[in-house]
Specification:
Helix 1 runs parallel beside helix 4. The chain starts with 11 loop residues before the first strand and ends in a 7-residue tail after the last helix. The model is unreliable at 1-6 (pLDDT under 50). By secondary structure, it is an alpha+beta fold. It contains 7 helices and 19 strands. Helix 1 (22-37) links the parallel strand 1 (12-17) and strand 2 (41-45). Bound molecules: nicotinamide-adenine-dinucleotide and adenosine-5'-triphosphate (ATP). Adenosine-5'-triphosphate binds next to helix 3. Nicotinamide-adenine-dinucleotide (NAD) is lined by residues 82-84, 87, 106-108, 110-111, 157-158, 195-196, 198-200, 203, 256-257. It is an enzyme of class 2 (transferase). Its cofactor is a divalent metal cation. It catalyses: NAD(+) + ATP = ADP + NADP(+) + H(+).
Length: 319
């Protein structure tokens, strides 16, 4: 049960923080203070509240028990940490679809919307409800052995089927919409979303997919095969990876680097679009292109686009 004191607040934000880092704890405490000062209630996981040295008080700060659905009755989840923390927040709140807003205190923070120096403006936007939420396509991932589903989960970034033993290749046949596509001896296969296209898929040579594109991606990891290209298929397609039954190598499935299960020879992994998207808060209208350039530090000096357009149109265009 959620522990609440006196009257429940009208508004509530779940704050999740990577409390192992002092820098994160400081920002988290400042956010809790600022939200409650503006009359917005804060919910904290009980362990994180203890790590932050905060207690339930005055009805504006509450803590949850482990069996609670953390995002229930919350208008937003404020995540303080890096991409790993946002993937963790997606897992903790997936069943409520509460929108996630990340303040980046990680290394890359590709999924985060705000930087720590923007904390005041971020809190002001939350208080004023001045934000939008963007639905991100997810994957529904099922592992079948002898036609029985033995594991199922969702993924925001990807489902990666990987070899379990360093010294053995994984032998798989991949399938699209019930038709076999190719057999690969490989290190693994990554089935990714557009959101995950900049993560493991990117390292594996897959395409960067703008988030508004609806698609499923499949890319092999070091396949010893002539045909081993990254593939982009319809969001309505069903992908499958079958670990051959007569292979010596077994595998392991990882979803978002968090949810994992061993794959015996003969396992079949089915990946389709998930029924429930993950909602990411947007504070800025900055295009994805700008995010890609900023996060990956891409060289764009010498670009003449905006200046050229202004000159051509006689100054009618903004930069
Ligand atoms: N070789 C690889 O590139 C590789 C291997 C394993 C896992 N991963 C990725 O790590 C993710 C888990 O992240 P973590 O932070 O918990 O683990 P982690 O700490 O090992 O970080 C992995 C890196 O991936 C980045 N990342 C995560 N999601 C991203 C996204 N959507 N776009 C761009 N970059 C992203 C993180 O910022 C971090 O730099 C997995 O979902 C997978 O995509 C990548
Ligand atoms: N409160 C917490 N308790 C335990 N583990 C946490 C907590 N918050 C985050 N983590 C885990 O810590 C790991 C690293 O998270 P973090 O968000 O800092 O990623 P990072 O790798 O440092 O940054 P980035 O992914 O942006 O490079 C992730 O696996 C995440 O799930």
């Amino acid at each position: 049960m959620t522990v609440e004191t006196s009257a429940s607040p009208q508004r509530r934000v779940l704050v999740l923080a990577h409390t192992g880092r002092e820098e994160v704890r400081e920002v988290a405490r400042a956010c809790v203070q600022a939200l409650t000062t503006h009359g917005v209630g804060v919910r904290l996981l009980v362990d994180e509240a203890a790590d932050l040295g905060l207690e339930a008080e005055d009805g504006l700060v509450e803590t949850t028990a482990p069996d609670d659905v953390p995002g229930e009755d919350c208008e937003l989840v404020l995540v303080i940490g890096g991409d790993g923390s946002i993937l963790r927040a997606a897992e903790l709140t997936h069943e409520t679809s509460t929108p996630l807003l990340g303040i980046n205190l990680g290394h890359v923070g590709f999924l985060a919307e705000a930087e720590p120096e923007d904390v005041d403006a971020t809190i002001a936007s939350i208080v004023a409800r001045d934000y939008t939420a963007e639905d991100r396509l997810t994957l529904d991932v099922r592992v079948k052995v002898d036609n029985e589903t033995m594991f199922s989960t969702f993924a925001l970034n990807e489902a990666s089927v990987e070899k379990a033993a360093r010294e053995r290749m994984l032998e798989v046949v991949v399938e699209v919409d019930d038709r076999p596509l190719s057999r690969w001896g490989c290190d693994g296969v990554v089935c990714a979303t557009p959101t995950g296209s900049t993560a493991y898929n990117f390292s594996a040579g897959g395409p960067v997919v703008w988030p508004e594109v609806e698609a499923l991606l499949m890319v092999p990891l070091s396949a010893h095969a002539l045909f081993a290209r990254p593939m982009v298929v319809a969001p309505t397609s069903v992908l499958a990876v079958e670990v051959l039954s007569n292979t010596e190598g077994s595998g392991v499935l990882w979803c978002d680097g968090r949810r994992t299960v061993d794959l015996p020879p003969g396992a079949r992994i089915e990946v389709r679009r998930g029924a429930r998207p993950v909602r990411l808060v947007r504070l800025h209208r900055a295009p994805f292109t700008d995010r890609l350039v900023a996060k990956f530090g891409l060289p764009v000096e010498g670009w003449r686009g905006a200046a050229e357009r202004r000159r051509r149109d006689g100054g009618e265009h903004d930069a």
